[in-house]
Write a structure and sequence with these properties.
The structure holds 2 protein chains of 2 kinds. Chain A has 7 helices and 4 strands. Chain A is an alpha/beta fold. Chain A has one domain: Rossmann fold, CATH 3.40.50.12280. In chain A, strands 1-2-3-4 form a 4-stranded parallel β-sheet. The longest helix of chain A is centred in the last third of the chain and has 16 residues. By secondary structure, chain B is of the alpha/beta class. Chain B contains 6 helices and 7 strands. In chain B, the strands form 2 sheets. A 5-stranded mixed β-sheet of chain B has the order 1-2-5-4-3. In chain B, strands 6-7 form a two-stranded parallel sheet. The longest helix of chain B has 12 residues. The two termini of chain B are about 35 Å apart. The chains are: A alpha/beta, B alpha/beta.
Chain lengths: ~210, ~230
């Protein structure tokens, strides 16, 4: 008799503390379609792009994950795969490409250089593309093996599957600060890109 | 008067050119010098400083103000015929007293010869040499690269701008010894400056106007180009 206190139709509609059956099923359907047909925009600048090509080719076959359709126009892409180091000269280009991609969109930072600048701790290379655009999945490696990239893609699919329409913040476009063009505070960028390891000795020429 | 350009065809090497062979067991110093070194010493006694042979390659040191004259002669003279400029670059040494050197790599295909010209530029003096662009049109971009990285001004170059770094780059010349490896500004400042560049401003209006895409440019841009306007300065 306790069951009769809730009407049979109430589970179909949202209540304050839980989502309804309709919303969760619809979320699942939408997320499933998105996750299984991610169209990648390959932004290959270095050797990681070679591994990316290997991932897309027959042996590892990206098509198994619904990604065989490379989108060389950012306007028809879902996921930006940044494969390789990004020099400062390319920073506004990468930012522009990201801004041109329509929502929903995700970003995979492939390899050590894209994620952190890698071994190129010098005057020319951006120390991590997450200082330019928001990144969803970082794939470590120099370069990562195709299995590594595939694992990163599967992690991204998992992330997509967990998205909820009721989450108001999920499609918010990250707006950079109009003054500086940065969306992370300058002090944080400086803190994160402090020299470490051998770079400490390489900083000054002694002249 | 520039010699007429002769295409290099198989078998067009001079009969007196030495047969091509892989050099083996070369001494670090000394060995057979390129005959062009002696010819330069004989013809340009004032400008000639010295020459040396290192690992089989001949280096001729000349005074910077007569480089164009010498290069022109090497290119035009029928006994030299250096028809290919493979590189223009510069060297700065760790010793702060030692002069900076500008280096030209010349190759003579008919004679199968390689010659390295070096012009020392004294520290403290303005880093200026003549551009060899009037002789080799291919010097255009490699001299721009040398200017970009070392700050050497090539007098007479048609369009001396940065080529690797963006044009509003303000940190200096990255391959100079006094340039810190990580740049002069903080990472955030570098990123802020990089993100503030307009991407189309990288190309000068001149470059856009000679591009094949000229007809496809927006009307307003074509009008600005036709008026002789340039961006990216």
């Amino acid at each position: 008799m306790g069951l009769s206190q809730t009407s049979p139709t109430s589970a179909l509609f949202d209540s304050p503390n839980q989502e309804s059956w309709v919303a969760t099923r619809l979320d699942f359907l939408v997320n499933w379609s998105r996750a299984k047909s991610l169209w990648p925009m390959p932004f290959g600048t270095a050797c990681c792009a070679i591994e990316f090509m290997a991932t897309a080719a027959t042996r590892f076959d990206l098509a198994r994950f619904g990604m065989e359709r490379m989108s060389f126009s950012p306007r028809q892409a879902d996921v930006l795969i940044c494969a390789g180091r990004v020099p400062f000269k390319l920073a506004p280009v990468l930012r522009r490409i990201w801004q041109q991609m329509p929502q929903p969109k995700w970003c995979i930072s492939m390899g050590a250089c894209a994620s952190s600048g890698g071994m190129f701790d010098n005057y020319a290379v951006v120390q991590g593309i997450d200082t330019i655009i928001p990144v969803d999945v970082y794939v470590p490696g120099c370069p990562p093996r195709p299995e590594g990239l595939l694992y990163g893609i599967m992690m991204l699919q998992e992330k997509v599957m967990r998205e909820k329409m009721s989450d108001a913040a999920i499609r918010n476009e990250m707006e950079p600060d109009p003054q500086s063009g940065l969306y992370i505070p300058a002090s944080k960028i400086d803190e994160l890109s402090e020299p470490f390891g051998n770079s400490v000795q390489q900083t000054r020429s002694g002249l | 008067m520039t010699a007429t350009f002769a295409p290099v065809l198989p078998g067009s090497a001079r009969p007196d050119a030495s047969a091509p062979s892989t050099p083996r067991n070369l001494p670090e110093k000394g060995g057979t010098a390129n005959p062009s070194a002696e010819a330069i010493a004989a013809k340009f006694g004032q400008a000639y400083i010295r020459s040396e042979v290192v690992w089989g390659d001949t280096t001729v040191y000349v005074r910077p103000d007569s480089v164009l004259e010498i290069v022109r002669w090497l290119h035009d003279d029928p006994s030299q015929r250096y028809d290919y400029l493979s590189d223009v670059t510069a060297v700065e040494y760790r010793d702060p007293e030692q002069e900076m050197e500008v280096v030209w790599h010349l190759r003579s295909l008919p004679f199968r010869r390689f010659l390295r010209l070096k012009a020392p530029l004294a520290k403290g003096s303005p880093l200026v040499v003549d551009s060899v662009w009037p002789v080799y049109k291919g010097a255009d971009w490699i001299e721009r690269e040398c200017y970009d990285m070392f700050g050497i001004t090539f007098r007479g170059h048609p369009d001396l701008r940065r080529i690797l770094m963006w044009e509003s780059y303000r940190e200096g010349f990255p391959l100079r010894k006094d340039f810190p490896l990580r740049g002069r500004f903080s990472r955030a400042e570098q990123l802020r400056q990089a993100l503030s560049i307009t991407t189309e401003g990288r190309y000068s209006m001149e470059e856009l106007s000679v591009a094949e895409a000229f007809e496809d440019l927006p009307e307003e841009m074509r009008r600005r180009l036709a008026g002789g306007e340039r961006t990216g300065e």
